[in-house]
Amino acid sequence: MTLELSLNQQPAHARQGSSIGQPLTRRDGFLKVTGAARYAADNHPPGMLYAVLAVSSIARGRVAALDIEAAKAHQGVVEVMTPKNRPALAADPDAKDHPFMFRLDLLQNDQVRYPNQSIAVVIAETLEAATEGAALLSPRYEVLPARVGLDGAESFVPRGVGVGGPAVQHKGDVEAGLKSAKTRIEATYETPAQYHNAMEPHAIVVAWDGDTLSIDTPSQGLAMAQGRIAGLFGIAPENVHIRSPFLGGGFGSKGMISGPQVLGILAARLVGRPVKLVLRREQMYGPVGHRAPTRQTLRMGMDGEGRLTALDHHAKTASSTFDDFFEPAADASHTLYASPAIATSHDAVRLDTGTPLFMRAPGEATGSIALESAIDEAAHACGMDPLEFRLRNYAEVEPMTGKPFSSKALRECYRQAAETFGWASRPLQPRLMRDADGFLTGWGMGTATFPALMFQAEARAVLRADGSGLMETGAQDMGQGAWTAFAQIAADGLGLDIDQVDFRAGSSDLPNAGIAGGSGHTATAGMAIHNAGAAVIARLADLATGNEASPLFGAGNEGVLARGGRLYRRDDESRGESYAEILTRAGLSEIEGHGKGAPDPASQETYAKHAHGAVFAEVKVDPDFGQIRVTRLVGAFAAGRIINPRLVRSQYYGGMIWGVSFALNEEAITDRRSGRIQNANLAEYHVPVNADVPSVEALLVHEDDPHVNALGIKGVGEIGITGTAGAVANAVWHATGVRPRRFPIRIEDLLG
Amino acid sequence: MRDLSYFRASSVDAARQAAALPGAMLLAGGTTLIDLAKCGVAEPETLVDIAHLKGLDSIEVDERGATIGALARMSHVADHADIKSRFPAVSEALWQAASAQIRNMATIGGNLMQRTRCPYFRDPANFPACNKREPGSGCSAIGGVTRGHAVLGTSEACIAMYPGDLAVALVAFDAIVHLGERQIPVDDFFLLPGTTPDREHAIEPGEMITAIEIPGSAAARRSTYLKIRDRQSYEFAAASAAVGIEFEPDGRTIRDLCVALGGVATKPWRARTVEDALKGKALEPETVRSASLLAVEGAVDHGANHYKIELAPRVVARAILKLGETA
Ligand SMILES: Cc1cc2nc3c(=O)[nH]c(=O)nc-3n(C[C@H](O)[C@H](O)[C@H](O)COP(=O)(O)OP(=O)(O)OC[C@H]3O[C@@H](n4cnc5c(N)ncnc54)[C@H](O)[C@@H]3O)c2cc1C
Ligand code: SF4
Fold first, then answer.
1. What ipTM score was computed for the predicted complex, to two decimals?
2. Which of A131, A620, B31, B197 is an S-S bond match for B193, by CB 3.0 to 4.6 Å?
3. DSSP B133
4. How far is A615 from chain B (nearest CA, A)?
5. Measured between CA atoms, how close is B178 to chain A, in angstroms?
């Protein structure tokens, strides 16, 4: 897709040369604030019908009866799709051949395995008719007791956690380390189930044309979605055309195609007409992923100087009864603090819930809040300032693997954030600070970290005889600013001003840009863009340096610079010519180049690659009411090269606010008898409102990383949530003397 | 699709007549009604729109008190200069209710009529048992998720909490609900669940709230509304208190005291025992704290809502003491 915006809507940006590093505002901002940005559910192809899911009331059992006649008799209802008439699929929806896919509920039988599982789809001329038709199905069930909660089933050690990492790992002898320790702590923390709750619900608009599919649906991974859909329907991937120019947030839940989206495609096939299916808010609590609850126990031993002698992190978590995502919470202890002995382990139960999934720093966030709380307890047990304690245990190499870090400006993050925050005047003991209004005031900190991941991506670059450029990659903008940041990288890669570059993204017809997830999109697709730019410039240079008529003749490939739409001799910048002149002379209307982005296997072996940060929080707690308010947050982050400081700051703000949300707000509350979530709406599933985050500051700490990739980019999307959640919890302790053991921290936890 | 007729009432009388027909419901700001229709709790056959009716949105305040039209918007009442100065608790209760968007849409009449947030009540498709919705069907909340449920005024049939803020202030200051000619004290307007939790208000079919009258008083003038909750805004009360106080000329002996609680009871909860215990006493922190404990006498918890019993008296005490500070 191209952003349908004319250039005069862009504010004039002051730039000298490079686009990278400039704080451009979002190029799609104008479309969004004027309502012109078209999200998936805004599409309305001719002849379109509306599909509405009927979902299960029960958590476990089978659908014994559906009143299909009643639904069909309702005016406007065109068809009811159930296991009996659902079109055939080319693949078993329960099959799985890699970790980046859901086992899907696609009406393959009458079994119910979690609340809100799809049990039928009603297709009608209007949304209202389909909604009423779904209600008229009045399902009857055979009910089995729901397995709920971390003690609700027998536990086992999963084969892998996260995307398949080992569930149990260790180095050194933890028991010996604990034994030799002068000071020991042991603490257990619980985190709740959380739901992604993107503002935009999962939605799909589908039209079949023979064996070709035209789809509008929000996707964080277009090529993966394309492949998954093609596999399920037995058609060629290139026959699946998915557009996803804008996502109203994803947070991981739009990373993999979900059951309801495929049911929309099936519904369109069944009725032979285009179909739109949009989830209602409460229907997002089940089939589109969530963050599983955890119960984590940490044990730490410290020597007389406050050095860790052992770190043991165990996490219990949950998955669905039929799929295998396990929140890798304990793995958070692999990368942050130096210790001669580290052990991490997981066990899990299988519950009657939808399958959990990556959600905003999966594992890192859950693990971080427990680890940072425990580190705080350990510092206190040693009588040390929490920052001093963290510096004492600063990891010079990655603790678990012993690999050197590709770069690590964490000390500088600590220093800048602590100074800005005013940490030095913090009393060591809790419950000593009060403000003028009598509120207990507390200061806490946490270390932030997130791996600098890269996936696989491709891009295609074109230079045209009119001097303009084109860059194509199927990148996904969830609101983070991909339309802007990638255009900046493209402009530099092509040696053009950003306004001269036509940047296309958000469609599966474009080269595979990899997944917008794992905070690795900018690095991965950015490198593909960078390399595609380099490839097409190299071709252009060949044309010029090989042609006697060119002032660049004989300069050789290495000997030219691309800047401002011109090539220059590196040794003599007075000699140069424009792209247009070169192409026109060669009689070419355009030339193209291709590039890839992928992790470099050699440096992958050699280096540990992570972004780092430090977050400081101030909370005020009413001593009588236990009411907590976060009054100040300061974070400093080092994440390699910053493509666009304005966008990056927004990512940090967002991440830090999610951290507050983790510590104080988010929780899916389950009715233990039925297994149903009782706050499946945004009135009762809370995230912070503006009044909850009055002061958030994010400092960008300079960091050059020669190893992560040629551009030096790490990731910035998820790191903010780590560190922050623990910092808030630790500030609550510092204010009150009460150590939070379950999250979110509620009024009743502090009433005393 | 469910057919629904929409009737734009031309006058109060026309509205009342139309609303008396079976299946008809008044529609004001719609922020409660449309929500409840979407989740299947309200099933109106006719919507009788009154939002535009002239003359029902006035706010009149003088020495004797305030009369607020049923169609006045929450935000207008909250921001009204005379309400702020003569009935601070009313203004503060409104400011702390819902969100700015809702306050701009929602009316005072609709606000009084808002329904419980009990999640079982709001989910008929998945929890058929609810005595408030279907008398005699049972109560799904008891034994379930109860953190937001009432600890005062509950019955075996229903433990649903009354969630609103404004009515708490109205109950504290003896406001009167005008149903056209009929007038009824607001405390009597809200009914206890008892064995008939489906009956929440003393309003008959064909009646309509036309105005709220709040008598002026020294206690109303020195009043406040204190609302405690996990989130700073856009959340119902974990516990709240509307308190007004009048001192003897010595500035510390309590002549008159009005106390009502929100977020903890099945209806806006007047705490007369606290008032009686403190009237005539000097305002001393210890006296106030121990008297405030009377607010939750007889409270019954259902597990997760136990904390409200601890919290509510502290909120009452703080509100009273805060008003004393400005004496
Ligand atoms: C997410 C959310 C959060 C909220 N938080 C709070 C909060 O923190 N505190 C709080 O106090 N409130 C809160 N509310 C409730 C809100 O204040 C009410 O929805 C609003 O006041 C209702 O007014 P309305 O005009 O929109 O009523 P409507 O929705 O139009 O009507 C509500 C009911 O009252 C009836 N009705 C309307 N007018 C009259 C009349 N004149 N006479 C008789 N019956 C009438 C209708 O028939 C209907 O049954 C919240 C609501 C939502 C959705
Ligand atoms: S508490 Fe009342 S409203 Fe809630 S389920 Fe029980 S009867 Fe219904």
1. 0.96
2. B197
3. T
4. 21
5. 31
